[in-house]
């Protein structure tokens, strides 16, 4: 097979430029007020935000749906029309340059205090500029922080690029003042769920399409739908992607450029917040006052941000030989239709490709590797019932080993090469001093321990520890996509009944299938992923393939050990969910009750020492395993109740049990 | 410059007839030694003389006497760059003939990045020895000879009938390359001759390929390379009489080999016209129109070929098919005419057609409208179609074509005219604020009685005004139509300087017109880039016909192929991609060019598997041994 295609090391990436550097050396005010002349779409007919609204309200699409709604509900046409106008009013952005200038000024101040640098690949910016000129553009940033979309607009303003309009969740609107500010900086607001509301959907999709088709502004949204609390990429949501691809599929534009943007934070502002949320401490409702309370974050060092604008992806080339556009020839294009099976799978595949593209260009800091190693060590020591700490030298040695391995796997690793490894390690650790503690040359996770405080229950103590573990895990997770395929192979080799290639493949395929709600695994790419994993392990000398037999080499044991341990928490999580469903789930368990119930089950097991992985307390893991079991048919949903469906579950469970035994 | 007329007298009519002819194609002189070219052998099968004496025939048996063997049209008419580097058009047939076109060089060089220094001249002489010797079916030849029907296996005659005017066909000829050519040419003089030829072909298993005007752009005339039988080209050009005119019913019965300009000229002499004017009408034949479902520029008044045909006679291997009466409409099952129309020579030879005729229009007037942009222009055409008030012809050119048309303005003789032109330009671009790089122009042709034409004109201009259109004079309009006839000659000029190109068409619903225009043009540009074309191509379009439910769109595409090793292949790949784009945007496979062999691959998707089966079963019944073996369509 073509090694160029398989070898991620050969990926070329651009260099970065720190945009804060100039901010530190020149006036923010002048920067905020400077002349801003963006390159625009070549076929743009300039129009005001208000004209845009009337274009939407007068569109054939909307008029058709309004008519339909009238017929169905018996409401008067102007009543429905007024409702549509109100929806649009609630939704629409009011992008104005003055607000952007305000943000340019204030964010400059904020960013300079919070971050050491904001690094942007300028070649990506140039590509984006070209793309904006040529075709309507959709910006698809990864979503790890509230900061993301302001940061995006800030960067585009800095580089004189057209300011985007951004699809934002309605929850922002609760913060009155901030909501309006965001609206004026280009955000438009969508209700979180509007399932059957035809009119809402029509207004929404027409609004987005109108902006896109006319090249009014780049349309920005988050493929993952929401901020990833785990820092793993989330399974992409297809709604908006469907909408932005539609104008191309229906021939209304020649092409649409999709630009994946990878935003990597060295330290995430919401770090502990996310961990608490995953553990069931509810997310505080967004409120303006809450935001001000967050002021204490301003005094901390959050390292640097890397923003990588990826290669624009042409929807036209994605659809080439994939979609038969003639299918839209026989029904007027303004009549809404549910996308057919082929369109759905096309959009789905594209979405995965784009999320993969985001992942590939995520910059990894040494800390990500350290977090992986520390977590593995913590767990190994825990199992061995030893002190869960590690010598700094040993950590450095392992980190260097892992650095080299991850580079061979194509990681976009920013390891400071001008300093010694031990310096690199200790400076990384010091940035995350809330998560690790160093004393006498030994490192351990920063648990509050040894204080016999009667007010803290064992359960509370466990949850406090879990906050640290899940925070660390969120950094480890950033590297998961690098190791995922080899790790699946390593686990497959570990569990397969023989080392025969076909056996291993079957086992790989099972694991991959099971974890496809957990990780970004492109649908239908099992063989490709398997080959890539084989290629990487063979290339790095960890594995040999002799006559369809896999042989792990001497030095390969270390690699495979590391890789299997990488997946362990996930396997444990799925297993515990299976066990819960088999042993503990009562009749009539609703989906809503599932997470609290399984959490209770896990806490009980951990406290009684029957379970060791604190990480499985993550509700994300629990929900994903339930989704996987539902998808695999091991569990069934009946009228909203979750029920175990034998014998699939038992097969699944047996397998997981075997795995544990081995 | 409208042809004006106050009355409707017959002398007036003839005057108008003369004017029209000179406008459309120019008077064609009979070849100097026409006697040898035209065999006035009367068809013995006909009991009576033809009603209308057809003395002046345009097309001789030996076409090479007046036409180019490796390019478009008459040998005496061609563009070239003179020593001063100015473009000139030779001959005396067209309005542009003998004139200098000062703007063409700059347009040509700047549009294509071409240079007069870089020439790619064609092989000057047809080298007969490079033509494959004919494979003759001796028994067939013997029997045919005994009928007295003229025939030839001369290499030149055969090469002339082995191609249409697709780019790859002409390109190969210019390089002196000949593929499979017919082994023999026959020239039937009448229906009964055709009956005999077809009978003999069936008897001796010979492959027949009907040939009319040779203007096909669908590879329809290409001999299938896999054909092992002797291939006989059946040239209908000598079946060119108007057999009768029925003034009571306004019909004319015409032999199918007549070419468009002769048909109109001869009918005009009696004060009538068919009004069917495809762009190729100088050379294309009535039978060809029927066989490809042709469309005429003035279909808004007269209809397309399917609206004009009242009765058709076709000779097939199973015998002659024709209807028993000339009723204007029938409910007798599926219309068998529709098996004939569009059959592209796969079922038989159309020999005679009864066509509707109309009294010649009293008054004609050209016109043009400038729109600020193409979008507005299309919106105007759509409104005109909605109100069903389209003039005889209405065409909308995009900005590139507008500029192209501009570059083809002949040298103006007076300072006054050039001053006026300058003034007009100033008015439109400066005073009215039209962007010269966005504006586009619609050309109009009105026909009818004077008062109605003027009324109609006002209606159309009023609509245009609602879409920002400004009347831009008759002259611009007329030049637009003139261009239609010379554009094919221009391709030959381009090919002398590394520039190749072609046009293709489609029909599309109204709501898709803008999208298809934009997307196909953009696709062409992108494909050229992807395929390594070094220069940016000319990619332009026009809307040439309006219908109730949609429009006909024409694309023109040309590029400079310097630096490419296989330019024709690149060209074909781009055209293929453009057609895919057309289909993906809701356009049809063809509006009037037909399918031939060039577009066969899309037929199944176009008419469905069942549709294909229906057509195949007709073919299987009518021509089980594939005597009409040009392999078009299916």
From TrEMBL, chain A:
Belongs to the GPAT/DAPAT family. Signal peptide: none annotated. Its main location: membrane. It comes from Amphiprion ocellaris. Residues 137-266 form the Phospholipid/glycerol acyltransferase domain. Coiled coil: none annotated. It holds the Pfam family Acyltransferase. It is found in: Membrane. GO terms for biological process: ether lipid biosynthetic process; fatty acid metabolic process; phospholipid biosynthetic process; triglyceride biosynthetic process. Pathway: Phospholipid metabolism. Keywords: Acyltransferase, Membrane, Transferase. GO terms for cellular component: mitochondrial membrane; peroxisomal membrane. InterPro entries: GPAT/DHAPAT, GPAT/DHAPAT_C, GPAT/DHAPAT_LPLAT, Plipid/glycerol_acylTrfase. This is Phospholipid/glycerol acyltransferase domain-containing protein. GO terms for molecular function: glycerol-3-phosphate O-acyltransferase activity; glycerone-phosphate O-acyltransferase activity. It comes from the Eukaryota.
UniProtKB/TrEMBL annotation, chain B:
Substrate binds at residue 491. SUPFAM superfamilies: FAD-binding/transporter-associated domain-like (SSF56176), FAD-linked oxidases, C-terminal domain (SSF55103). One of its GO terms (biological process) is ether lipid biosynthetic process. Its main location: membrane. Coiled coil: none annotated. It is found in: Peroxisome membrane. The keyword Aminoacyl-tRNA synthetase does not apply. Pathway: Glycerolipid metabolism; ether lipid biosynthesis; Lipid metabolism. FAD binds at residues 210-216, 292-295, 344-350. Gene3D superfamilies: 3.30.160.650, 3.30.300.330, 3.30.465.10, 3.30.70.3450, Uridine Diphospho-n-acetylenolpyruvylglucosamine Reductase, domain 2, Vanillyl-alcohol Oxidase, Chain A, domain 4. Residues 178-360 form the FAD-binding PCMH-type domain. GO terms for molecular function: alkylglycerone-phosphate synthase activity; FAD binding. It catalyses: 1-hexadecanoylglycerone 3-phosphate + a long-chain fatty acid = a 1-acylglycerone 3-phosphate + hexadecanoate; a long chain fatty alcohol + a 1-acylglycerone 3-phosphate = a 1-O-alkylglycerone 3-phosphate + a long-chain fatty acid + H(+); hexadecan-1-ol + 1-hexadecanoylglycerone 3-phosphate = 1-O-hexadecylglycerone 3-phosphate + hexadecanoate + H(+). Keywords: Acetylation, FAD, Flavoprotein, Lipid biosynthesis, Lipid metabolism, Membrane, Peroxisome, Phosphoprotein, Transferase, Transit peptide. InterPro entries: Alkyl-DHAP_Synthase (IPR025650), FAD-bd_oxidored_4_C (IPR004113), FAD-bd_PCMH (IPR016166), FAD-bd_PCMH-like_sf (IPR036318), FAD-bd_PCMH_sub1 (IPR016167), FAD-bd_PCMH_sub2 (IPR016169), FAD-linked_Oxase-like_C (IPR016164), Oxid_FAD_bind_N (IPR006094). It comes from the Eukaryota. One of its GO terms (cellular component) is peroxisomal membrane. The active site is at residue 554. Its cofactor is FAD. Homodimer. Catalyzes the exchange of the acyl chain in acyl-dihydroxyacetonephosphate (acyl-DHAP) for a long chain fatty alcohol, yielding the first ether linked intermediate, i.e. alkyl-dihydroxyacetonephosphate (alkyl-DHAP), in the pathway of ether lipid biosynthesis. Belongs to the FAD-binding oxidoreductase/transferase type 4 family. This is Alkylglycerone-phosphate synthase. It comes from Amphiprion ocellaris. The gene is AGPS.
């Amino acid at each position: 097979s073509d090694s160029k295609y398989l070898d991620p090391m050969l990926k070329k990436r651009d260099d970065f430029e720190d945009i804060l550097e100039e901010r530190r050396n020149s006036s923010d005010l002048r920067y905020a007020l400077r002349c801003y002349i963006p390159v625009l779409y070549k076929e743009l007919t300039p129009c005001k935000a208000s004209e845009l609204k009337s274009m939407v309200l007068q569109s054939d699409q909307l008029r058709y749906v309004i008519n339909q709604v009238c017929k169905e509900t018996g409401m008067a046409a102007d009543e429905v029309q007024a409702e549509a106008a109100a929806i649009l009013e609630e939704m629409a952005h009011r992008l104005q340059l003055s607000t952007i200038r305000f943000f340019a000024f204030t964010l400059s101040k904020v960013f300079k205090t919070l971050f050491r640098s904001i690094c942007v690949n300028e070649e990506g910016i140039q590509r984006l500029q070209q793309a904006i000129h040529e075709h309507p553009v959709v910006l698809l940033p990864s979503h790890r922080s509230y900061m993301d979309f302001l940061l995006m607009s800030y960067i585009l303003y800095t580089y004189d690029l057209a300011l985007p309009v951004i699809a934002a969740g309605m929850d922002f609107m609760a913060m009155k003042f901030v909501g309006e500010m965001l609206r004026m900086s280009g955000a438009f607001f969508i209700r979180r769920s509007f399932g059957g509301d035809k009119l809402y959907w029509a207004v929404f999709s027409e609004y987005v399409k109108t902006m896109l088709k006319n090249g009014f502004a780049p349309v920005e949204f988050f493929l993952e739908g929401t901020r990833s609390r785990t820092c793993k990429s989330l399974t992409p949501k297809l709604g908006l992607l469907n909408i932005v691809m539609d104008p191309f599929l229906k021939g209304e534009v020649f092409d649409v450029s999709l630009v994946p943007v990878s935003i990597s934070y060295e330290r995430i502002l919401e770090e502990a917040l996310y961990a608490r949320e995953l553990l069931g401490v509810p997310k505080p409702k967004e409120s303006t006052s809450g935001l001000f309370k967050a002021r204490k974050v301003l005094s901390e060092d959050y390292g640097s941000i890397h923003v990588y604008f990826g290669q624009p992806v042409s929807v036209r080339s994605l659809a080439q030989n994939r979609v038969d556009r003639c299918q839209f020839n026989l029904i007027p294009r303004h009549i809404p239709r549910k996308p057919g099976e082929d369109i759905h799978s096309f959009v789905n595949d594209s979405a995965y490709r784009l999320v993969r593209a985001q992942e590939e260009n995520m910059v990894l800091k040494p800390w990500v590797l350290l977090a992986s190693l520390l977590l593995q060590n913590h767990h190994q020591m825990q199992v061995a019932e030893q002190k869960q700490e590690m010598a700094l030298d040993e950590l450095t040695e392992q980190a260097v080993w892992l650095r080299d391995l991850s580079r061979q796997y194509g990681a976009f690793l920013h390891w400071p090469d001008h300093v010694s490894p031990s310096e690199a390690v200790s400076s990384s650790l010091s940035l995350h001093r809330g998560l690790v503690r160093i004393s006498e040359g030994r490192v351990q996770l920063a648990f509050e321990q040894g204080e016999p405080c009667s007010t803290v229950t064992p359960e509370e103590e466990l949850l406090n520890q879990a906050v640290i573990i899940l925070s660390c895990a969120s950094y480890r997770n950033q590297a998961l996509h690098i190791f995922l395929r080899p790790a699946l192979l390593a686990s497959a080799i570990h569990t397969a009944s023989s080392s025969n290639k076909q056996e291993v493949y079957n086992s790989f395929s099972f694991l991959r299938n099971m974890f496809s709600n957990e990780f970004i695994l492109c649908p239908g790419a099992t063989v490709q992923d398997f080959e890539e994993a084989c290629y990487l392990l063979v290339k790095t000398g960890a594995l040999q393939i002799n006559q369809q037999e896999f042989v792990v080499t001497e030095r390969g044991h270390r690699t495979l050990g590391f890789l299997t341990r990488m997946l362990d928490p996930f396997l444990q999580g799925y297993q515990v969910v299976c066990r819960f469903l088999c042993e503990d789930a009562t009749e009539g368990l609703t989906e809503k009750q599932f997470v609290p119930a399984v959490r209770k089950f896990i806490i009980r097991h951990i406290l009684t020492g029957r379970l060791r992985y604190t990480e499985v307390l993550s509700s994300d893991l629990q929900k994903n395993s339930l989704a996987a079991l539902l998808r695999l048919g091991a569990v069934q949903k009946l009228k909203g109740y979750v029920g175990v469906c034998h014998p699939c579950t038992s097969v699944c469970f047996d397998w997981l049990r075997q795995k544990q035994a081995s | 410059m409208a042809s004006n007329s106050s009355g409707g007298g017959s002398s007036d009519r003839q005057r108008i007839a003369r004017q029209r002819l000179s406008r459309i194609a120019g008077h064609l002189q009979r070849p100097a030694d026409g006697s040898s070219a035209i065999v006035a052998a009367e068809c013995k099968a006909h009991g009576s003389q033809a009603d209308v004496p057809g003395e002046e025939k345009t097309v001789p048996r030996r076409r090479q006497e007046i036409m180019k063997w490796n390019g478009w049209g008459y040998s005496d008419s061609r563009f070239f760059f003179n020593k001063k580097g100015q473009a000139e058009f030779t001959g005396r047939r067209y309005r542009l003939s003998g004139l200098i076109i000062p703007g063409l060089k700059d347009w040509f060089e700047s549009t294509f990045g071409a240079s007069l220094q870089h020439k790619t001249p064609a092989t000057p002489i047809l080298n007969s020895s490079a033509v494959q010797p004919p494979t003759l079916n001796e028994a067939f030849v013997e029997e045919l000879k005994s009928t007295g029907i003229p025939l030839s296996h001369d290499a030149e005659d055969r090469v002339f009938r082995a191609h249409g005017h697709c780019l790859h066909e002409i390109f190969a000829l210019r390089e002196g390359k000949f593929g499979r050519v017919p082994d023999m040419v026959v020239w039937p003089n009448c229906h009964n001759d055709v009956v005999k030829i077809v009978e003999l072909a069936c008897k001796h298993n010979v492959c027949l390929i009907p040939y009319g005007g040779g203007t096909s752009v669908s590879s329809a005339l290409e001999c299938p390379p896999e054909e092992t039988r002797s291939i006989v080209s059946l040239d209908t050009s000598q079946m060119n009489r108007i057999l009768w005119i029925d003034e009571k019913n306004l019909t004319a019965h015409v032999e199918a080999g007549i070419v468009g300009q002769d048909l109109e000229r001869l009918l005009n002499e009696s004060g009538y016209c068919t009004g069917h004017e495809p762009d190729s009408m100088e050379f294309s034949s009535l039978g060809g129109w029927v066989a490809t479902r042709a469309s005429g520029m003035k279909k808004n008044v007269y209809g397309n070929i399917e609206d004009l045909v009242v009765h058709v006679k076709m000779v097939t291997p199973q015998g002659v098919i024709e209807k028993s009466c000339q009723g204007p409409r029938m409910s007798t099952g599926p219309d068998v005419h529709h098996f004939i129309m569009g059959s592209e020579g796969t079922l038989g030879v159309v020999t005679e057609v009864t066509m509707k005729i109309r009294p010649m229009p009293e008054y004609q007037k050209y016109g043009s409208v400038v729109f600020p942009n193409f979008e507005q222009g299309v919106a105007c055409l759509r409104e005109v179609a909605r109100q069903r008030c389209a003039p005889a012809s209405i065409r909308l050119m995009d900005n590139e074509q507008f500029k192209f048309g501009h570059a083809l303005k002949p040298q103006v003789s007076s300072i006054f005219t050039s001053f006026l032109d300058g003034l007009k330009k100033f008015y439109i671009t400066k005073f009215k604020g039209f962007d010269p790089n966005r504006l586009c122009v619609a050309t109009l042709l009105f026909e009818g009685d004077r008062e109605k034409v003027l009324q109609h004109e006002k209606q159309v201009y009023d609509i245009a005004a609602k879409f920002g259109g400004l009347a831009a004079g008759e002259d611009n309009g007329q030049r637009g139509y003139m261009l239609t006839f010379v554009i094919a000659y221009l391709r030959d000029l381009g090919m002398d300087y590394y520039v190749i190109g072609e046009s293709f068409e489609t029909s599309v619903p109204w709501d898709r017109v803008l999208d298809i225009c934009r997307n196909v043009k953009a696709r062409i540009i992108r494909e050229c880039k992807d395929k390594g074309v070094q220069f940016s191509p000319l990619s332009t379009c026009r809307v040439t016909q309006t219908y109730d439910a949609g429009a006909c769109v024409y694309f023109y595409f040309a590029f400079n192929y310097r630096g490419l090793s296989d330019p024709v292949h690149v060209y074909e790949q781009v055209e293929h991609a453009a057609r895919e784009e057309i289909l993906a945007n809701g356009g049809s496979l063809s509006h009037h060019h037909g399918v031939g062999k060039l577009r066969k691959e899309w037929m199944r998707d176009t008419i469905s598997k069942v549709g294909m089966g229906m057509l195949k079963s007709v073919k299987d019944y009518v021509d089980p041994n594939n005597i009409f073996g040009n392999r078009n369509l299916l």
